[in-house]
Specification:
The protein is an alpha+beta fold. About 40% of the residues lie in helices and about 15% in strands. A hairpin with a 5-residue loop joins strand 17 and strand 18. The radius of gyration is 31 Å and the shape is globular.
Length: about 900
Amino acid sequence: MLNSQINQTHSLSNLLPLQKPFVAGDATTHSSSSAYSPAILRQPTTTKKSNATRTRSTSASKIKAITIPFLTKTTVKGVITIQPAISSAIAGVGIGGVADGVSDLLGRSFLLELVSNDLDSKGKQKTVKAYARYEALDFDINVYTYKCDFDVPEDFGEIGAILVENEYSKKMFFKKIVLNNNITFTCESWVASKYDNPDKRIFFTDKSYLPSETPEGLKSLREKDMESLRGNGQGERKSSDRIYDYDVYDDLGAPDQSLSLARPVLGGNDHPYPRRCRTGRPMSTKDPLSETRTLLPFYVPSDEDFSEIKEVNFGARALYSVLHAVVPTLDAIITDKDKGFPLFRTIDMLYDQGVNVPAPDNGLKTVLPRLVKGAVDTVDAVIQFETPATIDRDTFSWFRDEEFCRQMLAGLNPYTIQLVTEWPLRSKLDPQVYGPQESGITKEIVEQEIKGFMTLEQALAEKKLFMLDYNDLLLPYVNKTRELNGTTLYGSRTLMFLTPTGTLRPLAIELTRPPSDDKPQWKHVYTPAWDATGAWLWKMAKAQVLSHDSAYHQLVSHWLRTHCVMEPYIIATNRHLSQMHPIRRLLLPHFRYTMQINALARLALINAGGIIESTFSPGKYSMQICSDAYDQLWRFDHESLPADLISRGLAVEDPNSPHGVKLTIEDYPYANDGLLLWDAIKQWATSYVNHYYPKASLVESDVELTQWWDEIRTVGHGDKKDEPWWPQLKTQEDLIGIVSTIMWVGSGHHSAVNFGQYDFAGYFPNRPTMARTKMPNEDPTEEEWQSFIKRPEDALLKCFPSQIQATQVMSVLDVLSSHSPDEEYIGGYIEPAWAAEPAIKAAFEEFRGSLEKLEGIIDSRNVDPKLHNRSGAGLVPYQLLKPFSGPGVTGRGVPNSISI
């Protein structure tokens, strides 16, 4: 009976809040003025013996004559690190002065509660509570430090979790909580104020557990934490929420602003599409199927919002600044929106002299140092573009056929070229609607272009013919797009021949316009020509194809196949894989920052009237084309690099080859480097998965994993839930394949299509995003034809993007191609949970070593004179898959995740 009373006394003592929780030591013996002492910001203060210690002494003295044994307790000390906000160009706020920081902290604290892995004798959780006290601000690493002391009974058992209540009025970013008994809780998470969310936050130790292995004392917390992330699918989400739920893309249009900005819903039978994160905003009054929009960045769960505390989101803030400051400024000073560049030297002036603009607001130059140069005076500044690497090395590279083809293997979009396996080339579209299906590229044209080197049949048999095929994807949109102002479109095919040197040579370009009300189908095949008129038509046909490839690259290879498809993986992971699940901890580095950048894209890039619609040829139909590509082309089982190459005929399975596949084009820089990176990722995933799942039965019996994979297929990618190609999840090999694919898409795939954007497209004649005019020989008037004959250069310049379109795209590409100062590169940082497990730590070190070797291999390949697609006079070396990079636009570096 007496022991019970004593234990109750201790419990009450632990529950009592400190009167002045930020004052070091015994709060009852310090004056309030000590809380304001500047010294506490600079150095830890001396901690006196706690109240708990004295309580034990007092209690013990009262029971000296009693023989019942006393239940002793151990003091466990905890250190909590909190990261303050960083200076933000978006919000225009900073950390503030030291005094401001202190005043914000006074009078508030965190209530912490340790949870044992074991239940007590009555089957209830064993917990110990304590308040944290403010200790110091460490200027060197820019974190606030708090400390707390827990009186832990000796029979408490192993500590497995900690509950946190934030008594501030604002959310706080917890980095980690470290106990002096070598237990760490890696948080890296926002904790909402209890006034915004009264539920205590749950954090688990760095030790990973499969669901079946969860200690008894943590089982209910494991499920409760995931339930808190799922929400109930109701209401509008608040910035303090951590809710992960699904919705269709019904927020790209703005019908309330203008009916011309209404857009169809992406997701569902009409327009299949992956799902996005639900925000719950009200529906439009003018279109009940569309969600209203906001001027602020769209909701993302609070743990996805790193903009206040991570410099890696420098890119997001810079992109926001470009979209909301630079782009409107350019729009304002270029009054004629249709005006093109009169001369090629006018284009060169963008890099030599720049564009004079009104001086930007304070902070913009800091965020965009490459673009916004020093002000000439107090009134004006200059937006001046850096010379892209392709043009810096070879001014005329964009003009040459060999570079046109080389960039399909070692450029910005190496994901579309495919082997020609059937002849003749035919469309699969309805001939009653789109005209004759047969391609105009005939056997005679091919054999004439390869000059009798071999027959067409030999070229097919020896796998020498390759193609870019945008015919069937674009043809349904040609007539609709041509009704828009200032753009045109064709269905297109580009045929190429693999030469004995391993390089590609273009043979023919076919452009097709389907029938319309008053015109039959128009189709023309262009070939490299040796007469002046034919040569200029060929150059203009290449410009049309490049505009198609640019749109496909941005909409499909980049946005759809990386940003867009990753979001359902992120949502499902947070809804179904616990913090302590090893697969969640494996995948988490590949998910960071993606939802935040995707929300920004929905806000101002892929939305109605946004950058994509206003600067790429398909205009308002861009996202519908993206939906069609998802419906017709996207398959999860083709997203791994080897499977992607095989599906395009660029490789065949070969167990005797180093990567299990043999490349059809041996000198394919993207594939050569990518396969080394893929192998390293898969080997790392193999070691990791086999450690936690030594038997296949553990995979099948993992309820969290089963629910995760089921929801990805049936909800996140629900429009494809009945496809037969989805991998099963029954064995370790199944799981390795799935997680390796997800890791590859977020790292290698995204880097290959993102970080070379400025180098290859910053000089827009090399990769025009827009073809504004039709081909000169498509039903021309006499006046149009004579104008082309007299000044063909003018016709090409008019076809290129306008001045406003070009400068806007260049500004955006500059930011998208940049690495932040603290970019998190693949293999560069070991997660605490990995380091806590010796076998996983060793596997990660092996992974890191493989990536370091890859750096050297890529360097040696780029100086190998036998590799003509990556080494030669004036060529930009292919280094997009070099794992590591410095900050800025470097044309290399593979971050863990899609952070820009």
